[in-house]
Write a structure and sequence with these properties.
The protein is α/β, with parallel strands linked by helices. About 35% of the residues lie in helices and about 10% in strands. It has helices at about 35-45, 50-60, 60-80; strands spanning about 10, 20, 30-35, 85-90, 95. The strands form 2 sheets. It has a 3-stranded mixed beta sheet. A two-stranded parallel ribbon has the order 1-5. α1 crosses α3 (about 60-80) and α2 (about 50-60) crosses α3 (about 60-80). The radius of gyration is 15 Å and the shape is elongated. It starts with 7 loop residues before the first strand and ends in a 21-residue tail after the last strand. Residues about 105-115 have low confidence and may be disordered.
Length: about 120
Amino acid sequence: MPRPCKCRRVCRMPMNTGFVPVNAGQEDKTIVLTVDEYETIRLIDKEGASQEECGANMKIARTTVQQIYTSARKKLADALVDGLPLRIEGGNYRLCDEKNENCDSRGCHRHRHCCG
């Protein structure tokens, strides 16, 4: 029996929820990056956090961060190299409630969206 899904804590939603290549063709395929994948990219690549720090912030194990991060980078590479549209949506996450001292409160929200 698989382990139950655990929500990942996300401090802020993306300001843009999609990107379209300049020379987009008639390709029907769109790459979907989940919100929790977006959060790992934001924390590790943008904020410079380690995988351990990212895991602590998102309340998940470092090995889970590594799996999410690997998936996110593959999707970003596919979108960039193949010139495919990218959409950010879904995933197993909850928005931060601003009560955790490890959280970056600039982008936190009290609204929660959890594993559905």
